[in-house]
Specification:
about 290 residues, tt1808, chain A, 2 domains, 6-stranded mixed beta sheet
Amino acid sequence: MVSQPKIATQHEIIYPDSDGKPIAENTIQFRWIMTIYHNLAWLFALQADVFVAGDLLWYPVEGNNKIRQAPDVMVVFGVEKGDRGSYQQWKEKAIAPQVVFEILSPGNRPGELTRKLLFYEHYGVEEYYIYDPENNDLSGCIRSGDRLAMIEEMQNWVSPRLQVRFELSEETLTLYNPQGQPFSSPLEIEQQLQQERSRAEQVTAELEEERSRAEQVTAELEEERSRAEQVTAELEEERSRAEQERSRAEQERSRAEQMTAELEEERRKAKRLEMLLREAGIDGDRL
């Protein structure tokens, strides 16, 4: 059965997943967006309650689909990871993205940048970073009360939320993760992920080999145990036979002693009879 498209009722508000704008206007801007997104996603990969997104529409107000913004990269602490068509804040514990990145392109106009700043300031962003790769210019804002205040010195600035350090040289911007390692390019991340997958597969294979060896050793020990039980049973059987032989020998010895005693008694009786006959003057040899 083919499902029918959902038709909005008169009072239902649709929150589109796309604003029709491209992710980036050029390859440099796209590369920077992907670099920041992938490195942050990797940085927080093991934290289930940190959500990282790129070019995702953020709707801060329920009931108004005109109030929206699509940060190049945003990080939200306190909500679960997972796929979303858009970030509808009222469905996300009312938590606003705490950190936002914007990568500028030649098409960005001052008025647009001002509107974005006011939007992020009004709707609760804590840290806002703007990088212009064309002019190698970096700026940032940090929340102070109900406003976003400019960060006076961005060189070697460390993000309070991300613990990422910004270093601006004459040629380019470099971001360093909390371990002090520079952000990798998306290709380098893919290569590193492939290496991690290869190492994981190798470790899995080694564990499987160890498991196989352990099973083999267990089987050999079981076989040895079985043989030991068999030997023990044979020894027990031999001990039982020896015990029976010893019992029979004891019985034979007892019977021999009894026969010896009976013969001795017969001999004694014969001597007594012979002595009585002699006393009676009877020659026992003539009887």
